[in-house]
Design brief:
337 residues, 3-stranded antiparallel β-sheet
């Protein structure tokens, strides 16, 4: 199995893009991608070229020199144009696209631009893009524009200076601090769901804590993805069982992923960690079991227990209901005259 701190060989990268890795190998590679920008760029480059290659990606792009060359060709260099935007630098990449820092000369501001590997076409793309652009919420990264350049679809959005929750959690934090961060992220997801959007890739690296202290949910790119029925997208470690099976998903899949991420944040490991994998049907360890989630309020245990239910019908009906269980409103103190 791939070690999380070791970069894989070219055959592994090609097999990952072609979705030919075994589940445990893919999970390990996903964990590696969370922290390795070099592999992120290589995966994105190979993914962008794969549709034009032969049916066997391992053979057609099987040499390290070929992959390196592909990365140089596929990634846009500083100074390249995406519509009216000038690329400044690459910020990161994954199987679904590449994110750049860019400059908007018309409004004289720095932005982030994500170029999507696959995107919906025509009216469907327009409608989804409008829904994202109209989603004005303090806990969702603002989307300024959606367009096409050189045959690719891109999303221009707010550039946030800060740190991802993945990186923030590398240092210890008290449970109340963690809950405060996730309460804001959950509010952003709930707003997206009310707008008819499903994120489909909720995880700590897609939640940003800005230098201004505000938490924002990032990367709604999968909401614009044009996928064949049964296609599995997202990050396996956070996927709901129905998403792992390639079934249609709704906001309850985001709810499940949110609960996995919150468990990981307060417990220091994901629910299936410690040698225990989900049981058949997708059940994860019970948040109420002795020795788990020590120091976590009972209401949070209850919320996680239900949010991690294998069957979508057994979860909360909406993200708002989950948030009400996890973070009940604090009554105002009475003032005595």
């Amino acid at each position: 199995m791939l070690a999380s701190d070791v970069c894989p060989g070219e055959e592994t990268i090609a097999a990952y893009v072609a979705r030919k890795l075994a589940r445990d190998e893919r999970d390990a590679f996903d964990s590696h991608l969370d922290t390795c920008s070099a592999c992120q760029e290589l995966v994105a480059a190979v993914a962008r070229l794969a549709p034009s290659q032969s049916a066997d990606p391992v053979t057609s792009i099987g040499a390290a020199s070929t992959i390196t060359q592909a990365a140089a060709e596929a990634l846009r260099l500083p100074g390249a144009q995406l519509g009216r935007y000038s690329v400044l630098a690459s910020l990161g990449a994954g199987g679904m696209g590449v994110v750049y820092a860019a400059y908007d000369p018309e409004l004289d501001r720095k932005i982030a631009v994500k170029v999507l590997r696959h995107a919906r076409a025509g009216d469907q793309l327009r409608d989804e893009a409008r829904a994202i652009a109209k989603l004005a919420h303090p806990n969702v990264v603002a989307v300024h524009d959606v367009g096409r350049a050189d045959g690719d679809v891109f999303i221009a959005m707010e550039h946030v200076d800060g740190v991802t929750v993945r990186d923030w959690l590398r240092t210890p934090h008290r449970v109340p601090e963690i809950l405060h961060v996730f309460e804001q992220a959950g509010a952003g997801l709930a707003a997206a769901h009310r707008a008819g959007l499903v994120h489909r890739d909720v995880k700590p690296s897609n939640i940003m804590i800005g230098n201004d202290g505000r938490v924002r949910v990032l990367d709604f790119g999968l909401a614009l993805a044009d996928l064949e029925p049964g296609t599995i997208v997202g990050t396996p470690a956070y996927m709901a069982p129905e998403q792992q099976r390639g079934e249609a998903v709704d906001p309850r899949a985001d709810q499940y992923a949110f609960c996995v991420a919150l468990w990981e944040a307060v417990a220091g490991r994901r629910p299936e960690a410690g040698g225990r994998r989900p049981e058949p049907g997708g059940r994860r360890p019970d948040p109420g079991e002795p020795g788990t989630l020590e120091g976590v309020p009972d209401r949070v245990r209850r919320g996680l227990r239900r949010g991690l239910s294998a069957r979508p019908a057994d979860r909360f009906a909406t993200m708002d209901e989950l948030l009400s269980e996890l973070f009940p409103p604090v009554p105002r103190s009475r003032r005595w005259m």
